[in-house]
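User: Predict structure, ligand fe (ii) ion.
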Amino acid sequence: MSCSYTFPGNIRFGEGAFRELPACLPAGCRPMLVMGKSFSLSAEGKELLELLAPLQPVIRIGVPAEPPLESVDELITLGRAGQVDSVIAVGGGSVIDAAKAAAALIPVEGTVGEYFSGARTIPGKGLFFAALPTTAGTGAESTNNSVLTDTATKIKKSLRHPLMKADLAIVDPMLTWSCPRALTAASGLDAFVQAFEGYTNPKASELTRALSAQAVKLILKNLKAACDGDHAARNAMAEGSMLSGVAFSQTGLGAIHGFAHPIGSLLHVPHGVACAVLMVPVMRWNEPVCGARYRELAEICGVPDFIGAAEELARALEIPSDFKKYGLTKDHFPFIVKNCRSASMATNPRPFTDGEAEDFLETFC
Ligand SMILES: [Fe+2]
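Assistant: Predicted complex:
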């Protein structure tokens, strides 16, 4: 079977690239701008708002973390009422995912819940969609899905369509400079996990592994300094996150993301933190199957032991070793095991039976 690769329509990377946004939009467009709240108060956020003011965008500042369906419906209502023809997302993964879903659904009928439940199917291309990440990162500027949460059922899963990829992704490291330390650490570890889960994924190819390997190397080398506010390190993190997103959007992820979604939605664990806590134990589970890949990554990164390096990084960033403080108990296991069977879990290098998944979860209580 052949390999198939799809990318955002146009990816721009570089310091100051966000200033190219107006010139990259369709001529005469009437956009909806969805921007993260804290970013909107930064110097770059204010400059972006000024740059877009001549287009008189419909503006929505702030989207809840781990976006609930209701927040997407609010964007859809706003966009339909304002008769917008394009959507611009400037923020972290939650902002980009919510705006991406809105861009797909504004021009069609129904609520996002109807598409999320499968009652309706996304018919095709939505509105022009531009994504500018302000964290490094989630890779959401490169993926064709939105991770959303139904707060009634606590189910967190992807709304997906091949044509949901951004038409324009501007990855500008400057947009990450104001990101607080804790969010830089959590989103950076998410990017790190996504980079090596892409690398070890059974669907990986020479092309995707080249991108994933470079992402792993950049992130491992720069994340600690990025958390300390070093601009050069933050620039390298933005590039690493972009490379990881381009790669894993072709391959998919693994069990860290498989478990992170139900644990995150059930116990309100931020996504990056959930991935970081699960990271090393899942690597050890996968080691019998993909030990050779970890040895390749160790060599690429210039470290003696890749799992050991990941463990040291998590320790340096003060990541907890379990979910005790989030209240995980055995009573949660049936929900987690039932809802971890996502596309990510399906492509984990070493499968988990339900019983093995329950035994594995015991170590986090
Ligand atoms: Fe992630």
